[in-house]
Amino acid sequence: MHSRSLDGVSTCAGNLVPENAGDRDLTGEADKVNLAEESLLNKMIRHALVRNRNQVEVLQADPTSPLYSVKTFEELRLKPELLEGVYKMGFNRPSKIQECALPMMLAQPPQNLIAQAQSGTGKTAAFSLAMLSHVNPANKWTQCLCVSPTYELALQIGKVIEQMGKFCPDVKVQYAVRGNRLQRGVQLQDHIAIGTPGTLLDWCTKYKHIDPKKITMFVLDEADVMIATQGHQDQSLRIYRQLTKDCQMLLFSATFEDSVWRFAERVVPDPNIIKLKREEETLDNIKQFYVACKDKEAKFTALCDLYGCLTIAQAMIFCHTRKMASWLVDQLYREGHQVAVLSGQLTVEQRAAVIERFRNGKEKVLVTTNVCSRGIDVEQVSLVVNFDLPVDLEGNADSETYLHRIGRTGRFGRQGFAVNMVDSKHNRKIRKLDTQNLEEMESLST
Ligand SMILES: Nc1ncnc2c1ncn2[C@@H]1O[C@H](COP(=O)(O)OP(=O)(O)OP(=O)(O)O)[C@@H](O)[C@H]1O
C-alpha cells in the first residue's frame, strides 16, 4: 500500500490542530458541541468496537432478492492480501453492521447502500474494505471517491485504508484536502481519493485531476456531520451530478434526522437501507441524588464534603460553561486536589490526551463541560456530579444531555451514582427517566 507524502499535509493525527484553536478562550457561554470535532475525538480515543446488542434492520431495494449476510471475512472471497490486512488489524469477524453491509457493498451488479449506525460500530472499516476490494490496481486512474466532512476526518479514514491495505502495495490513495496541491492538468493515478467536498469538487471540475465519469464507487461518510456544515451538502450534490448512473453510491451516518434522510435520498437512488439502533442506556443501576444549594460557593462546599467519595473510584463533574469549570478547578486546586480538566478550549488532540490520562487513572476526578457528555467510556467512573444541571439554549432542562452525562457511570451493569447540585432559585425537579419511554422523556423538556 502506498500513500503519498503531501505538500503541507501531515497524515499524522497528532499534528492536527483546529484552525481556530488559538481563538478559544474562556467564555460564559455554554460549551458548544462541534459534531465534527466530537466525531474525531471519538475516533481518536476509541480502542475497539462499541458494543450493541440490537438487531440490524435491513430494507432491500429489491425485496425479492435473497439477503446475504456473512459471519466470517473468508465468506467475502477477498483478495488474500486484503484479508491479511483485515486480520492484521485484529478483526476476527465482521461487526454487526459489517455482516450485512459488506456483502451488499461487494455484490455484483453493484448495489447502493444507506447505512445508519452509531459511531464505533464499524462503518469506516466496512467502506474502507469495500473500496480496497473494489479497485482494479491495473487501471491507473481514480475509481473510488470518498467524501468526508473535515480534513482531519478524511485523514482518519485514510489511516484505516492504509492500515487495511498494508499488504496491497499496488493500491494507491490520495488526499483531496486543503494544502495538497497538484499541478494543473495532472491526472490522478491513485485508485482511491479521500477528501473534503470542496477540494474534491475542484479536483473533479476546476483542475480536472479526476474524471468523475470513471468513478465507480462514491462514498459519503458522516452525512449528518456533512450537512451540518454550510455548503457541504451543495458541493457533495455537485460532485454527485458529475458521476455516471452506474456509479455505486454508499452513504453512512450515525444519526438519521429528516434532513439527513432527505439528503441521502437525493444522492443514493434505489438504496438498500441498513439501520442499527443505538443501544439504550439503562439507568436501573444508577442511583440518583440531589443536593439543594443556594449558589456556586454552596455547591463547592457540598462537593468538598463529597470529595472522599469521589476518589474511591473515579468521578466526572459536569459544569455548564468553561468559565464555571475553570472557577471550580481553581477552587479544587486551592484545596489541594489534583483534577483533570476537559473543555472546548482544548484542541481535539489535547482532549484525547486528557481522556487517555483519566482512563489510565492518572487523575481520579475529571471536571468537564458538555464537550464530553458522550463519547467517553471509562469503566471505573462510578460517580457523576452535575455541578450544573444541563440546560438547552433557552434554559430548559436538557434531558437528553442529562441522560448522556449520567450514562457515563454505571457502565456494563456496575453500580453508579449521580449527584445533582440544584440551585434552589431554579429548584428543578429531578425525576427518574425511563429511556424506553420516549413520551416521558419528551414531556420532561416541557
Ligand atoms: N470487525 C471488527 N472487529 C474488531 N474491531 C473492529 C471491526 N471493525 C471495526 N473495528 C474497530 O472498531 C472501532 C470502530 O470502528 P469504525 O471506526 O469502523 O466505526 P464507525 O462506525 O465508522 O465509527 P466512527 O464513524 O466514529 O469512526 C475501530 O477501533 C475499529 O478498528
From TrEMBL:
It comes from the Eukaryota. It comes from Acanthochromis polyacanthus (spiny chromis). Keywords: ATP-binding, Cytoplasm, Helicase, Hydrolase, Nucleotide-binding, Nucleus, RNA-binding. GO terms for molecular function: ATP binding; hydrolase activity; RNA binding; RNA helicase activity. It holds the Pfam family Helicase_C. Residues 104-274 form the Helicase ATP-binding domain. It is an enzyme of class 3 (hydrolase). It catalyses: ATP + H2O = ADP + phosphate + H(+). Gene3D superfamilies: 6.10.250.2170, P-loop containing nucleotide triphosphate hydrolases. It is found in: Cytoplasm; Nucleus. Residues 71-99 form the DEAD-box RNA helicase Q domain. InterPro entries: DEAD/DEAH_box_helicase_dom, Helicase_ATP-bd, Helicase_C-like, P-loop_NTPase, RNA_helicase_DEAD_Q_motif. This is RNA helicase. Residues 1-28 are annotated as: Disordered. PANTHER family: ATP-DEPENDENT RNA HELICASE DBP3. CDD domains: SF2_C_DEAD. GO terms for cellular component: cytoplasm; nucleus.
